[in-house]
Amino acid sequence: MIEIGLARSQSQTARADAAIAQAKSRIAEAESVATEAQSALARTRPLAEKGIVGQDVLDQRVSAAASADAALASARQGVAVAEADRALTLAERRELELRKAKAEIKAPTDGLILSRAARLGSVVSGASGSLFEIARDGQIELDAEVGETVLRRLAEGQAVTVTLAGGGEPVTGKIRLVSPMVDATTRLGRIRVALPASSELRTGSFARGVVETDRSTGVVVPRTAIIADADTAVVQVVRDGTIETREVTLGITTGSDAEILEGLEAGDQVVALAGTFVRDGDAVTAVALKSAEGEG
């Protein structure tokens, strides 16, 4: 309806412009007639005073001059009316353009539309909430939970390798935000990882990220090989076919492995499931642990 009103307003403005031009042409014509009538009256007055022309002729000249002046005034009034009509039309047009501007919804940035609450023809207000949810420039973030012991080793800008649910090629993002809070119940903190634009990403889907917080070269054993309490950590070593318990010093740990700083040497044979089946001094025959893929 606004577009129709604007088109009608443009047509009315054009007609008003034409009316103004026509009224101005009438002024020029009326001014010419009035000038001629005044000149004729000025020539007739001396002749009437000398009796060369009669009073009736003078009266005609006076009447003609008065009529010409009235026609000129009317023409000028016509211009004023036409200009007032044009001003009114322009005011109506500005109002329509303002309504149109308010009716147009413009996104503050380019991006990918994630959700749409707006419906064509619906009435919205400030209390209607967001009409669209947009990912700026198509960027999507990973909202991840991290254990409190790891959270303190994370910082903005660190690279994160993200694996999407269902497989596919991992994507590399960067930590954008590390939350200063830890949930009192779960003991988990949160981080936000900015991910590059990709057609593989879907909002709401599950993903897992890996961050390299430390790097070290040394002896590594499965965490299941370690028996630890608040003060010490020990492993069970097979030496000359006999179980021997050794106290060790731990370094970097992950969810599945732990670095041994002291207490083990490269090549030592370690019981993979410590404390489960054997005790210190038991005689055993060592068998290499096979990986999930069947490799030794």
Automatic annotation (TrEMBL):
Pfam families named among the record's database cross-references: Beta-barrel_RND_2, YknX_C
Ranges for domain CusB-like beta-barrel: 142-210
GO MF annotation list: efflux transmembrane transporter activity
Membrane-crossing residue ranges in chain numbering: none
Any one Gene Ontology cellular component term annotated for this protein: efflux pump complex
Assigned protein family: Belongs to the membrane fusion protein (MFP) (TC 8.A.1) family.
Record's protein name: Membrane-fusion protein
Source species: uncultured Rhizobium sp. HF0500_29J11
Lineage of the species this protein comes from: Bacteria, Pseudomonadati, Pseudomonadota, Alphaproteobacteria, Hyphomicrobiales
